[in-house]
Amino acid sequence: MTGTQTQPHTTGASRVDGVLRDALREILAGSVVRGALAILIAFLVGAILIVSTNDDVISAAGYFFARPGDTLSAMGGAIAEAYGALFRGAIYNTQAESFEAGIRSLTETARFAGPLIAAGLGVALSFRVGMFNIGGQGQLLVAAGCAMWAATQWQLPAGLHLVAALVFGLIGGSVWGAIVGFLKAQTGAHEVIVTIMLNYVAVNVLTWVLRTSPMHNPGSGNDPTSMAPAATAQLPLVLGPSFQLHLGFVLAIAAAVLYWWLMERSSLGFKFRAVGLNADAARTAGINVERIYVYTMAASGAFVALAGVNQALGRTAGFTPSIDAGIGWDAITVALLGGSRAGGVVFAGLLFGAFKAASSTMQFAGVAPEVMSVVQGVIVLFIAAPPLVRAIFRLPAPGAGVRAVIARTRTAETEEVAK
């Protein structure tokens, strides 16, 4: 009797352990863990580059076998100084004389992260629908041009002027994106080709407008430079004149909340996800896939346009066609690292905003700016190649835990039938 009573208990305990192991396997196979490991690998690669180019390390390596401790100490010091500079430039400056001066680093991270988050949300939305929007540069420039036109050519009361410029910029970017969706829906044109071509169109049209239109700044000669936005259309500072952080970051966070609601709670978001999972099945279920393509690129362009508005109205001076500052391309990295989820995109935007905010501090510490570019590139590499991360860390493939649970359940059912 004792053996009969003990056996079910042992079998039950082993099943619980198996379920826990399967759950852990699913967590380790998830995109969050994979993204964290990709960042870890990137920082390790960055550390290798830092020590291999540091003068003290190179000097100490010349007599490594005589005194290896000197080389190891120099390597540790170089890495600590570099990543310490990253912390001081992006989060809190421990060498500042006051708390206000120290926390300025974090506000700069947020300021740089705002347009990255907004543009990343736009690219992420297209990913969720199975499309690839690499036209962020063009959509951002068109939105910036429209917003600046309203900010310089319209005379409106304070508050209303800012809203009008913001809305006009969003409409411009959305329409520019909708062109891509319309061409794909009506002609089958691939969105990658169309967005690349529209990037060139946007750059050249904006250059022409900034050089010849009433928006041109006469003081810049023949250079394509806009006039400064009117004070009534500028994004207000949120922490006072001591910090450069403006309303653009708040709008980016609000956009992330809107993105979450749109994709996870709205009926339109359900259609977006359905088309992204299987366009043919969605069409069979009665969803107008061609219309969804247009809606997708229009919404994607609107999110990216918020980044353009941020760049145009978050300043007190005019801008040139280089105002995009690579944000349209960085948005692809942000969307990939964020797993096309609202929270992930916000985190990824803050991370890359931290890199931008700390670039000058790290250069002052003797770290070449190309090091952070390599770190970003490595992150993209490992995010885009999940099997590579799983091979390095011996992680299970996605769904392995679910398959194990199914197999375990079938085994248990077979044993019950056999009894």
Please outline what is shown here:
By secondary structure, the protein is mainly alpha-helical. Helices cover 75% and strands 0% of the residues.
Structural notes for this entry:
The chain is an all-alpha fold and 419 residues long. The chain contains 18 helices and no strands. Helix 6 crosses helix 13. The longest helix is centred in the first third of the chain and has 30 residues. It is globular and about 70 Å long. The chain starts with a helix and ends with a helix. About 3% of the residues have low confidence.
Essential attributes:
mainly alpha; 419 residues; globular
List the topology elements:
Layout: H1 2-28, H2 31-53, H3 55-61, H4 68-90, H5 99-128, H6 136-153, H7 160-187, H8 191-212, H9 247-264, H10 267-277, H11 279-284, H12 289-313, H13 327-337, H14 342-357, H15 359-364, H16 369-384, H17 386-393, H18 400-418
